[in-house]
User: What shape does this take?
Amino acid sequence: MPDRSPRILLVDDEQPIQTLLSFPLQRDGYDVVTVADGRDALARFSEQHFDLVVLDLMLPKVDGLEVCRRLRAQAGNGKTVPIIMLTARSEEIDKVLGLELGADDYITKPFSVREFRSRVKAVLRRAALARTGPADEAPIETLDLVIDPVKRSVEVRGATVQITFVEFEILGALARSPGRVFTRDMLLTRVWGDSAYRDPRTIDVHIRHLREKLEVDAKEPEYLYTVRGVGYCFRDVV
Assistant: This one.
């Protein structure tokens, strides 16, 4: 964690929800900035540094999915920040859209404050570990893929690929142990510290998105293999 208190941008148009969620975060020592619509969220994000964005899906002026897309579009400017999306809708399509636009975690209302605090702590912990990871870890190279853990960059066939925080964590976990099969729960634990409260199918969405970005043919992958009934593995270099 940085020396200062982590700053969280909480975006929800329901005042009771803002109060319910901001109070325990402030009690945990976080600096919480609350806004009620997507337009204000984008303005605040451009003005200040945040360590995490908690973003409701259904927002006035600019909806949560569009806000997420615009925040991720700023990744090239060094403003990659973890995003947790909130929604009262439980349809699978909403989860898929949120994750594919770059959300790092996803919570469906109603949820407990305990679950919410657990998610926030896990995402911030992973982000902090990523910032303070080994400064001398060598890049992972196989075929036309280069993963640089220090720069947190990925190149495939000579071109830089923009991937999200969670996608990088999943790819790194698999690539550091080529040939080893990871279950969905194992990957959830690697990324978030535990698999509590999380739908294992979340991993499937991230893997599919990684394949679309890295593979020549996502249906015939060279890097990320599915082991049916078990989980996923990275190609064995042997």
